[in-house]
Specification:
Strand 10 (about 355-360) and strand 11 (about 365-370) form a beta hairpin. Helix 2 crosses helix 9, helix 3 (about 210-220) crosses helix 4 and helix 6 crosses helix 9. This protein has nine helices and 14 strands. About 30% of the residues lie in helices and about 10% in strands. It is an alpha/beta fold. Mean pLDDT is about 90; it is low at about 1-30. It has a seven-stranded mixed β-sheet with strand order 7-4-8-12-9-11-10, sandwiched between helices. A three-stranded antiparallel β-sheet has the order 1-2-3, with no helix packed on it. The structure holds zinc ion. Zinc ion binds near residues 1, 146, 147, 170 and 276.
Length: about 450
């Protein structure tokens, strides 16, 4: 879900001055320090990129293809300057501070086609489908149930409960949906991997491991003497505690980075399906605000802000996706899958009111957004955000254990939302691959 920004490369810290900050002019004048080379700007827990990899990108895209990808997908349409310049025949990419920009040649008209090395396959690169074979035969699909759920649901702030004894946990529900999807996709011929199989983290790290970094992040935000722990999850000041920041680095950053390692180095799928449920702001998790609004959207990767692109790792990851033409495959799949999801769930498309996401295709349910998972996974990613968990009717439906057939909820005969979600994903993939593989054959 996207109540707070799921992508947040930097955990949220308010800009603040604290009583312990020295007053201007009160400090003893210090000697002017010698200039030190600027450090690469990196997002939390990122390693500095290997800029020599840019050499793979020369001759891959024409200037028109690069410009179009930036304009249609990767830019957030802001007017702030970007860390590169284009010439008619080359892209001049800024890398580390103090280093001259790297020249990436555009593909000349008529030059032979060149591709960036990649592990995933387009439908045209799969073995041709024989007439009697199921439509997903040979497609490697990785299912990534978002969040962790279970005992982690409260710290990852994906837990809500209207009444004692009941609870809706996003990480637990999407794991159930993955378990429904796996055999159905396999029956259609797919090879299905699970990025997470249990309500346990993929990362080996623990929240406590991130206390020193959490303190550093708070210090950089001007919080020089933060409280160690918070006691009330409803207290908005909890985000100024070391504990809250460390937990966030654990479940939002370390966990996603561990999943990306698994996807890119171990699983190497043709597509990842990130399974989530959405919500509107609910306030107190033990007395959540219930709303009467429900919607769906499907995210692909894109919509980078100039500020985000200042981080070297983010810039390199965007370039890998752009020159690897990952966006072309995501776009090709997104409209069909989005339409199938809306048809099956009956949900209307979401409308973003801020500029961290943008429409990128004719289908009103498809948006581009720079999320950590969709950026780090080096293959096509479809990121599902159906259902508002704190919509009054949806909340009641999600409390019911998964069931087959329809049951009466608030006077209406309704399927389990887990079933409608599953059917939507399957229908969208079947429709897309049927069309794409028929054309490829
Ligand atoms: Zn989510």
């Amino acid at each position: 879900m996207a109540v707070t920004s799921v992508n947040a490369q930097t955990p949220q810290v308010p800009t603040a001055t604290t009583p312990s900050a020295p007053a201007l002019g009160s400090a003893t004048p210090a000697a002017v320090p010698a200039p030190v080379p600027a450090k690469p700007k990196l997002s939390p827990l990122a390693v500095a990129p290997d800029w020599s990899q840019l050499s793979h990108f020369s001759g891959v895209l024409s200037k028109e293809e690069f410009d179009q990808a930036i304009t249609k997908i990767y830019s957030n349409l802001s007017n702030f300057p970007l860390p590169w310049k284009t010439e008619p025949t080359a892209l001049l990419m800024n890398t580390s501070p103090g280093v001259a920009p790297v020249r990436i040649e555009f593909r000349h008209p008529g030059a032979p086609e060149k591709v960036v090395p990649k592990y995933w396959r387009t439908p045209a690169e799969l073995a041709p489908l024989q007439p009697d074979e199921p439509v997903l035969k040979g497609v490697h699909i990785a299912l990534d149930p978002g969040h962790i759920g279970g005992i982690y649901a409260k710290i990852e702030e994906r837990w809500l409960s209207m009444n004692p004894g009941e609870q809706v946990m996003e990480g637990t529900l999407v794991l159930q949906i993955a378990a429904l999807l796996k055999p159905r996709l396999e029956a259609l011929g797919a090879n299905v991997s699970m990025v997470r199989q249990k309500e346990t983290p993929v990362t080996m790290a623990k929240p406590e491991d991130f206390r020193p970094l959490a303190k550093q992040i708070l210090l950089e935000a001007g919080i020089t003497n933060p409280v160690e722990n918070y006691t009330d999850p409803r207290d908005e000041a909890r985000i100024l505690s070391v504990q809250w920041q460390a937990e966030k680095l654990f479940y939002r950053v370390s966990e996603i980075r561990a999943r990306a390692d698994k996807v890119n180095n171990d699983l190497k799928p043709d597509v990842v399906l990130c399974l989530h449920l959405n919500a509107e702001a609910w306030g107190d998790p033990q007395k959540p605000v219930l709303v009467n609004t429900n919607h769906f959207h499907l995210l692909i990767n894109g919509c980078y802000s100039p500020d985000e692109l200042q981080s070297e790792d983010v810039r390199m990851e965007m370039l890998q996706r752009l020159f690897g033409r990952v966006h072309e495959q995501e776009l090709a799949m997104a409209d069909t899958v989005s339409a199938a999801m809306m048809r099956t769930t009956g949900l209307p498309p979401f409308v973003y009111l801020n500029n961290n996401a943008r429409r990128v295709s004719p289908d009103p349910g498809v948006f581009a957004r720079n999320l950590l998972a969709s950026r780090l996974y080096q293959c096509p990613v479809l990121y599902f955000e159906p259902y508002v968990m704190n919509d009054a009717l949806t909340y009641k439906r999600l409390l019911l254990p998964y069931y087959v057939g329809r049951t009466l909820v608030d006077g209406q005969l309704l399927n389990s939302p887990l079933e409608d979600y599953t059917r939507g994903v399957v229908a969208g993939l079947v429709e897309y691959y049927k069309k794409a593989r028929t054309q490829a054959n």
